[in-house]
Amino acid sequence: MKKFKIGFIGSGRIVGHHLKAIKKNKNFTPKAICDLIIKKTDIYSKKYNLNCYDHYDAMLQNENLDVVAIVTPSGMHYEHAKKILKNYDVNLIVEKPTFLKTSQVKEVYKIAKNQKKKIFPVFQNRYNKAVKRLKSAIKKKEIGDLRIVNVRVRWCRPQRYYNLSKWRGTFSHDGGALTNQGIHHIDVLRYLFGEVKNVNCNMKTLGANIEVEDTAMALIEFENGVVGTLEITTAARPKDYEASISVIGSKGLAQIGGLAINKLEIFSPKPSDTKKFSENIPDAYGFGHFDLYKDVALDLNRKKKFPVSFEDCYKTIQFLNSFYSSNEKKKTLDVKKVVDSKLLGKKNEKISKLYR
After folding, report:
1. 105 and 173, same domain (yes or no)
2. Are 196 and 97 part of one and the same domain?
3. How many H-runs (helices) and E-runs (strands) does the chain carry?
4. Distances from the Cα of 239 to the Cαs of 154, 233, 282, 323, 353, in angstroms?
5. How far apart are CA 318 and CA 128, in angstroms?
6. pLDDT tens digits for range 177-229
7. Residue 92 CA to chain centroid, in angstroms?
8. Cα angle 13, 175, 109; round to 5
9. Residue 167 belongs to what domain range?
């Protein structure tokens, strides 16, 4: 298979996980990294022998890249992806939450199609052993007919976390507990239990001085009749306590948890599987990026389509926006009719200028 040259826009902590995954994948060669504060690239450039730049234009004009990974603040993904696709001949890997608005997903994918380029969204928790085991159990009806689903994320993000950067805690460039911390749980809900019929959500800001929510409570109904609740908060103190997804079926109970839904904590049909399908991970990023890059390589080499399609990505971001829209309108919403939240992803030129 062909080997692809890759560069990175942004030098946050998550870049290290991308590079670890690439190091074990013979189909990629890491070539370059850029950050507006070029000194921030040092930790990666020295370890992985990367060329450094202070802007993606300079990087893309000087490097013959096949793929670029966008790991900038969430609210900049749309602008960066759109400009790069229009001006450079590269495919894009886009970190969570891909884009903040459903309209942005639609627009960027359309540009990519016209340019004959690929978009690869990062939803790495789908690759977790526990998630895949539960997906298989649902398909085979090992826990019977599904009845009730619950999501609980009880994490701690104090004010000092939001004070680290101007984009944090803003509707324009971050989103709150749902968009930043909860997006993977929201995506896995769809992945495991199917499309969502309606959402009723109430949001609060309880533990920090920020404009976005740090707490969200929601009632969810799936198209297959399954009902559920969602509780995601970063207002827990003084530490992270829990992040789990559980499901009650007519034949039993299953629950996945851990730092990154990496542990099969309960599986009543076969309790011995809890150990077999649990992973010990060093941090909340887990190991999913390793398999993600395998799938990217297979797609680029035309061996197998990347498992997250445009429609799949669109529906996850639409689901995300439905929580915000429900809270804004103070009513239950039909998810299929949701387009964009009024607040999430709103324009803020003052902050955008800091990251262009």
Report:
1. no
2. no
3. 12, 14
4. 9, 12, 17, 25, 34
5. 23
6. 999 999 999 999 999 999 999 999 999 999 999 999 999 999 999 999 999 99
7. 15
8. 80
9. 126-283+313-337
- Taking residue 207's Cβ as centre, other Cβ atoms within 10 Å add up to 18
| Statement to judge: residues 106 and 165 lie in one domain | no
Instruction: Give residue 163's identity as a one-letter amino acid code.
Output: N
**If you ran DSSP here, which 8-state letter would residue 164 be given?**
T
d(CA 267, CA 1): 39
In one-letter notation, the amino acid at residue 263 is: K
Nearest 5°: CA angle at 128, between 191 and 65? 90
Structural domains of the chain, count: 2
d(CA 324, CA 294): 34
- Residue type present at position 165: S
Q: Convert the pLDDT of each residue in 149-164 to its tens digit.
A: 999 999 999 999 999 9
Q: How far apart are CA 159 and CA 350, in angstroms?
A: 21
In angstroms, the CA 276 to CA 115 distance is: 44
| Omega cis (within 30) before 282 | no
* Nearest-angstrom CA–CA distance, 56 and 70: 10
Question: Would you say the pTM of this structure is higher than 0.85?
Answer: yes
The token pair at 163 is: 């004070």
* Residues 202 and 242 both lie in one domain: yes
Amino acid symbol at 279? E
**Are the CB atoms for 152 and 228 separated by under 8 Å?**
no
